[in-house]
Amino acid sequence: MRSSALIAAALGAATAMPAAAVTTIYVATLNGASEVIPNASPGTGTARVTVDSVLHTMRVESSFAGLAGGNTAAHIHCCTATPDTGAAGVATTTPTFTGFPSGTTSGTYDHTFDMDLASSWNGSFITAHGGTTAGAFAFFASGLDAGTTYFNIHTTAFPGGEIRGFLHAVPEPETYALMLVGLGLVGWTASRRRRV
To answer: Which InterPro entries does the annotation name (predicted)?
Structure first.
């Protein structure tokens, strides 16, 4: 009985410790079926967005292939009323990410944005969230955490958006490690009870 109390206290203390990481990674799978009006696009893609909440940077990595038309824009929309559904306005730079390969049906992208710069945002998104990049960043970050932001690629074949996907946080390795420790301790406690 005393060992169970010690294990519970250790797990409680471990989960109460602050996270050391300042970055959060969000990923999405992009396809036509995920658009507001689903389409039969043969296009597919992935997006990986890494946000550093201390440096206020956002690294955007994407790959896409098989689009029905040449891409005309790519950006992140925020924030829908309900996670994983609905439509929202463009939050990031418009009409498209800086340096995103335009007019192509396949490609890759990797760029890091300084989110303290107004040029990293859609100006109306800044205005709608306090008139500062800090206000925009705070609202955007909470939308990412809530699953109400999505990555969208627009094309000549589908001007309203050919492929999109909602961004979701990837659990930190420490979270997995803590879960494994917890499962190991539960198993150890169960085996000790059987022996007693």
So the answer is: CHRD, Ice-binding_C
According to DSSP H, which parts of 30-157 are helical?
Answer: 123-128, 133-146
Phi-psi region of 86 (alpha: psi -120 to 50; beta: other; left: phi over 0): left
Task: Report residue 97 CA to chain centroid gap.
Answer: 16
Q: What is the pLDDT of residue 171?
A: 87
Kindly report the CATH number assigned to the domain that includes residue 110. Answer: 2.60.40
Shared domain for 138 and 193, answered yes or no, is no
Number of domains into which the chain is organized: 2
What pLDDT score does 20 carry? Answer: 45
Range of the domain at 4: 1-20+175-196
Based on the fold, state whether residues 61 and 120 are members of the same structural domain: yes
Cβ-based neighbours of 64, under 8 Å, separated by 6 or more: 30, 43, 44, 45, 46, 71, 106, 107, 108, 153, 163
Start-to-end Cα distance in the chain: 11
Instruction: Provide mean pLDDT across the span 137-148.
Output: 98
Q: What is the pLDDT of residues 6-65, one digit of tens each?
A: 344 444 444 444 444 489 999 999 999 999 999 999 999 999 999 999 999 999 999 999
Measured from the Cβ of residue 176, the count of other Cβ atoms closer than 10 Å reads: 10
